[in-house]
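Input sequence (316 aa), recorded before submission:
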Amino acid sequence: MKASLEADLHRLSRFAFRRTEKAREVVREFHALKKKVRDHGDFPEVECLYQWLFVPLTLWPVDVAGLMTHLLTKMTAGASIDPKAKLLARLLGPPPLQTIQDVAAAHEHLVQEGNYESLIKSQPKFEEMEQQLRQNADFNLAWREIKDHFPVDEYRNPRGVVRRRMVQERNFRSAWDFRWSRKKERFQNVFDAFCHRWNLYGMEGDRPLLLKLTVNLTPFGTMILIPAYWSFDPKRDLNWKAITGLHRARGVQRQGPKLSKNRMAMRDDSIAAKRLWREAKTQGLRGRTRVEWVLAKLRLDCGNDESKLKRLLRMR
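Predicted structure, token format:
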């Protein structure tokens, strides 16, 4: 058990975004479970979910570590897992394929360092704008005023970074209602406006963190952010081959008007074939007679299309 725990903690340590810090305790808790908990009727759900702890954070659709902690707390207390939590675990299903995980994990390490060079071809544009910003008198004056009005150091993370509030996909915004009663709320509003004025995602010490042209995997797709100040040249700015490879790591099928039309027709044929196959069975048809009957109903050639019928019946 100890060796297994050490191996799992080592697996965690290889991930970006401080994964050991976020998931270490729940991994230890899982390995320390007593036999009566492992015999719990809901343990298979938790055992499957446990593998998600070793999936890159980029691919998590929910807080897996938090969900694991919730389930283990219930089971350790001898309580059953409520149906809604079971539904959540079941909908997560098995982790993504290892090939997808490997690509996402490698991408996370690059993102953690702010390194997008393999995907972006136009680093000189960013460097030019960053240099201009550091030398901009209005920017430096605004930052000094913010530090005069607010205790900025109180809002830095352990790396000394202050971040603005994030704008989510499709421009949704959480915790966005205007609040001005608390000191931190006043600072956040002012700092968000400052970052908007100068195209920043934050400040590291006195260094502006200028927005970059970025490409990021998310649990739901691949996001490309073009900063507002950026004069975008799609042919020269992005490494489309690398971006396509990153996106297709999920196992995305080739698509296009003709391919989509053909696949939709195949799905319709599959539904019809399965319905006719069941109907033939209810009529007592078996073996070759059943095959020929279904082929005839589908207007397929009995001599050449039997393999097509098999493919239609296998489709999901």
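Checked by second reader. Residues 257-282 form the longest helix (26 residues).
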